[in-house]
């Protein structure tokens, strides 16, 4: 469920669920942790230190972060307007087809600046990631073809707690999505990517 698209009634229903004794899957805190805005907050200086004690672990986690900024950072907005190909504008929506790339980044930022509305709070600016491209076979609707592609690995986990007591916290699988390297979007359901498996060499 897309929390960014919740209306008032849906938020009230979610509040009722959170206040109940039912097991939530996911809980609202875990659900919000996956939003772009919370990811941006976690990437800020001195925030990881609230959750991790080991400095080496903190450094390793921080190495995995791409740059994430709110649209009120005038210096980074200037850079994104000058070099839009290095950035992506992301809304608080999931499922593919929602991100803004290339020259559209510049046009969107200039439009938001001109309008001066609160709409920019619905977006974050992210450093564009350029993963390794490999030659692979992709199949859709029973037809395969060979092309240059990139992949994204997601790790499944199971986490169960009762208030402060952690009952279960395990890694339990993965999801690999592969798409054409020329494609900006990567949603499987939206038709931009295919499900894949890992081939270790």
From TrEMBL:
Entry's Gene Ontology cellular component terms: cytosol
UniProt xrefs under Pfam families: GSH_synth_ATP
GO MF annotation list: ATP binding; glutathione binding; glutathione synthase activity; metal ion binding
Cofactors, names only: Mg(2+)
Pathway given in the UniProt record: Sulfur metabolism; glutathione biosynthesis; glutathione from L-cysteine and L-glutamate: step 2/2
Protein keywords: ATP-binding, Glutathione biosynthesis, Ligase, Magnesium, Metal-binding, Nucleotide-binding
EC number: 6.3.2.3
Family membership noted in the UniProt record: Belongs to the eukaryotic GSH synthase family.
Subunit structure as annotated in this protein's UniProt entry: Homodimer.
Protein name according to UniProt: glutathione synthase
Organism from which the protein derives: Rubroshorea leprosula
């Amino acid at each position: 469920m897309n929390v960014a698209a919740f209306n008032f009634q849906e938020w009230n229903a979610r509040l009722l669920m959170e206040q109940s004794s039912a097991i939530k899957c996911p809980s609202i805190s875990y659900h919000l942790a996956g939003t772009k805005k919370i990811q941006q907050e976690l990437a800020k200086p001195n925030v990881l230190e609230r959750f991790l004690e080991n400095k080496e672990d903190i450094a390793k986690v921080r190495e995995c972060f791409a740059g994430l900024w709110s649209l009120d950072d005038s210096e980074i907005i200037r850079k994104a307007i000058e070099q839009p190909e290095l950035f992506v504008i992301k809304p608080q929506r999931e499922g593919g087809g929602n991100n803004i790339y290339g020259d559209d980044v510049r046009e969107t930022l200039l439009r938001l600046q001109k309008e001066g509305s609160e709409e920019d709070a619905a977006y974050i600016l992210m450093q564009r990631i350029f993963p390794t491209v490999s030659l692979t076979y992709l199949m859709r609707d029973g037809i395969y073809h060979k092309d240059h592609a990139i992949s994204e690995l997601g790790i499944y986990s199971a986490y169960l707690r009762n208030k402060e007591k952690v009952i279960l916290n395990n890694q339990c699988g993965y999801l690999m999505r592969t798409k054409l390297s020329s494609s900006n979007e990567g949603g499987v359901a939206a038709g931009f990517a295919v499900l894949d498996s890992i081939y270790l060499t």
